[in-house]
Write a structure and sequence with these properties.
45% of the residues lie in helices and 23% in strands. The chain has 875 residues and is α+β, with helices and mostly antiparallel strands.
Length: 875
């Protein structure tokens, strides 16, 4: 028993010795070793698994700083490196009161300290614990934690826990003070070093100044920091070592009156005026000026005053003023000025000659071929004024060519400008010249002139001169260029016509072929029906081609016009779903039509052209979208602020093959079509988008496109339209049925030289109960009408191009007949001549109306009903 007691006393003594070593060691490494020794002695004494120190880094958290383990090869316990105080509120309060926590059964706090149990002890297989505070002057600085101690044998240690805790707190506080003192010593040493550097730097700067002053405008004082004995100011200002304080304004005035030359005196005072310097230094960091004074002891009389504000960022009325002599600088400048004036006088005469030449040549260079050196001696135009007056000649000639010469003449002029071959080219010549087109569109003449040869006759020095050539030459070249462009345009149109011819022959071949097949299977209704569908499809394609050629021709001639009228937009859009279904044909596509936000139902717009814009783009979308894809047609309105106008916005998107950026750049061209194997498989002729663009422009709209090859295309068409307040309902309520009923029983005279065309129109009219007689040409038509009794014919359908007598001549002849009804009978042109001039010629000849072939029967019936006297809207 006695030995056990001795061992415990020895362990307590070892703990006290470790505390003493911690206190006596000032090096961090030695101090840490002492701390670990103390923790080890505590661990051995208490037979604990772990002993840890947590220091309070601020009022909200503890930090694990040291830890001892009984077995070094065991894993560290799951102790948090940072322990928030609110994570162990009960323990924190106990420690804050300076008390210790001794638990021989952790389970005993499971209910009273649930947070500590779960957060601090519960997950570390801890069964017992001793926690005691580290305190300095009743201030908690941390704590020591002992895990799984043998508490029954720790009576003596528990008794000295308060002593250990207070002593560790005192040691920690002293260590902090030692650290701060060491930091202060290092900082003072660094500051002393920097101060010495600054002092040496200032001494170097001071050397160049004859005098320096510290000035405070708010107090109107000036303190001399340096005054050389040679300075004029030294004659009435004592040494600055006496810390003299001067009146700033009086000193400046006295110095100016005594030492500044008469012509500089007033300016000197004005520039050093306190109010003036406040204004200047409010926005500037420094300010300087030059002046002349009476010579000082060394004869120096030119000085520069340099004024700098004390603080770099803000001006607080405190400045430094330094005066530095600049006689050597002024002397150098005066010498340079004299040299320049002399050089100017020497070159004046030469410049007069050069100026005379410069009226003809706007750029003249003197070139030394031997040394590859040039000097510019004349340049009137800013465009051709070089960045430097002298330089390497070969480099400058290349730069001139790259900068000013048009690309098509670049190689030719570069060869002419090659100075390495120029001496040989001028061996038997005195001058060489070439003409070229500049990038600015002007024509130039460049000329080399021999200036000097050596004893062997080789050229060593030349003149290079450039001038504008005559306007006649420029016009000649421009006309040549215009002719070439015209030839290119004609070639493009020739290629286009060749393509159109091919596209016309293709559907015509199909029509004739399917017609032959229908004849051969006349008794097989399904085969005939199939062939007729193919014939109609080819005919529709041919009609579409002709219409677009007519449109593009009208656009080129400036004849295409927009005829706006009140249109019910929802009603117009209702025509698209069935039309798109027809365009789709046998293709398996998901076609979506979506109209929304149509605030104004009736708008002023050309319905035909609006449909044409949308139909052309939708047709392309369907053509170039493979089976399984989708086409979306979305249309909506965007109101303006005054509600008088709206933007009609259509978005047409597809998941088709898309377009390359190269094709997008010229997709609106009239006579071009993308060269693409995917596109070439689809029938077309490259006019649709050109017409769309022209129509959108005529309507003052915009069209945007985004596309990526393989990912589809989206067109967005924005057209500004005026809202229409008039009642449009009457126009929409008129049905085609009333026109059919009105026309039934009518009898017409049809002038048509093509028998097949007459057969088609007569059969179509018969479908609506209308009969007709056939006139084979214009003369027959006139004679049949002359011989007919009154009211035999209700109207005449007149072709334009016929043998013997054309439709215009026949119409004029009928109108001039002395016969009842000759002036009033409706004559309707039914012709393939569909240009604006053709329409006007028909009306001038006396016709009532013009309709282009193939005839739209609905429009024809409404026209006939109108002329019969019924109230039917003319489409």
């Amino acid at each position: 028993m006695s030995n056990i007691m001795e061992d415990k006393k020895s362990s307590i003594s070892n703990i006290i010795d470790a505390l003493t070593k911690i206190e006596n060691n000032h090096l961090n490494s030695n101090r840490n070793n002492a701390i670990y020794s103390m923790l080890k002695e505590i661990g051995l004494y208490t037979k604990a698994l772990y002993v840890s120190i947590y220091e309070l880094v601020d009022s909200s958290a503890f930090e694990l700083t040291h830890q001892w383990r009984l077995f070094n090869n065991t894993e560290s316990p799951n102790h948090d490196l940072i322990l928030p105080t609110d994570g162990v509120p009960c323990i924190f309060n106990i420690l804050y009161q300076g008390e210790s926590i001794i638990l021989d059964d952790i389970e005993s706090i499971k209910d009273s300290m649930p947070t500590e149990y779960n957060f601090f002890f519960g997950n570390n297989n801890i069964t017992a614990v001793i926690v005691f505070p580290i305190i300095f002057r009743k201030r908690l600085m941390g704590f020591v934690r002992i895990d799984n101690p043998n508490i029954k044998d720790c009576g003596d240690f528990i008794a000295i826990i308060p002593v250990i805790g207070h002593h560790m707190g005192s040691i920690r506080e002293n260590n902090k003070k030692d650290t701060l003192i060491q930091q202060h010593k290092l900082s003072m040493t660094a500051n002393q070093t920097e101060f010495e550097k600054d002092r040496q730097f200032l001494e170097v700067l001071y050397r160049d100044y004859t005098s320096i002053y510290y000035v405070d405008f708010s107090k109107n004082i000036a303190e001399p920091l340096k005054i050389d004995r040679i300075a004029n100011a030294a004659k009435f200002i004592d040494s600055p070592s006496k810390h003299i304080t001067l009146n700033y304004n009086d000193t400046i005035k006295q110095y100016s009156e005594t030492y500044i030359t008469k012509e500089h005196s007033k300016r000197f005072c004005d520039l050093l005026n306190a109010d003036y310097l406040r204004q200047e230094l409010c926005y500037k960091e420094r300010f300087s000026f030059r002046y002349r004074s009476l010579p000082n002891i060394l004869g120096q009389q030119y000085f520069e005053a340099q004024i700098v504000r004390i603080f770099e960022t803000d001006f607080d009325n405190r400045i430094l003023i330094g005066f530095i002599h600049i006689d050597d600088i002024v002397a150098s400048e005066q010498k340079r000025q004299h040299e320049l004036e002399t050089a100017l006088a020497e070159t004046k005469l030469s410049n007069e000659i050069v100026s005379a030449l410069g009226k003809i040549y706007y750029a003249i260079f003197r070139i030394d071929l031997v040394n590859d050196f040039y000097e510019e001696i004349s340049s009137e135009s800013e465009i051709h004024h070089l960045t430097g007056k002298i330089g390497r000649a070969s480099t400058e000639m290349i730069e001139l060519c790259d900068t000013f010469v048009a690309p098509e003449y670049h190689d030719k002029v570069l060869e002419f400008f090659d100075l390495s071959t120029l001496a040989d080219r001028l061996h038997d010549e005195e001058t060489l010249a070439t003409e070229y087109l500049a990038k600015d569109g002007n024509w130039h003449t460049a000329r080399f002139i021999v200036k000097k040869r050596d004893n062997n006759g080789n050229v060593t020095h030349i003149l290079y001169a450039t001038r504008l050539i005559s306007d006649a030459k420029r016009r000649e070249k421009n006309w040549i260029s215009i002719a070439e462009e015209a030839n290119k345009a004609n070639l493009a149109k020739t290629e286009f016509i060749s393509q159109i011819a091919h596209d016309i022959l293709t559907p015509m071949n199909a029509i004739l072929g399917f017609e032959t097949l229908a004849e051969q299977h006349i008794n097989e209704p399904k085969t005939v029906e199939y062939n007729l569908k193919k014939i109609k499809s080819s005919g529709d394609f041919l009609m579409e081609l002709v219409n677009e050629v007519l449109d593009i021709t009208q656009i080129e001639n400036g004849q295409l016009r927009i005829n706006s009228q009140p249109v019910n937009i929802p009603k117009l859009l209702d025509d698209f779903p069935p039309m798109l279904k027809q365009l789709q044909g046998d293709k398996k596509l998901n076609i979506i039509c979506n109209q929304h936000d149509l605030y104004q139902k009736t708008l002023l717009v050309d319905p035909l052209r609006l449909k044409q814009i949308y139909t052309n783009i939708l047709s392309n979308a369907i053509k170039y979208t493979p089976d399984g894809g989708s086409v979306t047609f979305e249309i909506y309105e965007e109101l303006f602020l005054n509600n008088k106008y709206i933007n009609l916005i259509a978005v047409i998107s597809d998941t088709g093959i898309g377009m390359s950026q190269e094709y997008i750049n010229h997709m609106y061209s009239k006579f071009s079509r993308a060269t693409d194997s995917r596109i070439n498989k689809v029938g077309g002729y490259g006019l649709g988008l050109s017409i769309v663009k022209e129509l959108v422009d005529l309507m003052n709209g915009r069209i945007n496109v985004t596309s990526k090859e393989g990912h589809g295309t989206t067109f967005k068409i924005i057209i500004p339209l005026e809202c229409c307040a008039e009642n449009y309902k009457a126009l929409q309520d008129i049905s085609d049925t009333s026109a059919h009923n009105t026309c039934k029983g009518m009898h017409l005279l049809v002038a048509e030289d093509n028998t097949l065309n007459y057969e088609v129109i007569s059969e179509l009219l018969a479908m609506y109960g209308i009969t007709c007689d056939h006139a084979e040409d214009g003369s027959v038509c006139v004679e049949m009408f002359r011989e007919s009794s009154i009211h035999t014919y209700d109207a005449i359908l007149m072709d334009m191009q016929m043998p013997v007598m054309d439709g215009l001549q026949a119409t004029s002849a009928i109108r001039n007949l002395n016969k009842p009804g000759a002036h009033s009978i409706p004559i309707i042109a039914m012709t393939a001549n569909a240009f604006k001039d053709d329409i006007q010629r028909c009306l001038d000849a006396g016709m009532n109306m013009h309709m282009s072939k193939p005839v739209n029967m609905e429009k024809l019936l409404k026209a006939l009903a109108k002329f019969k006297g019924e109230v039917i809207v003319d489409c």
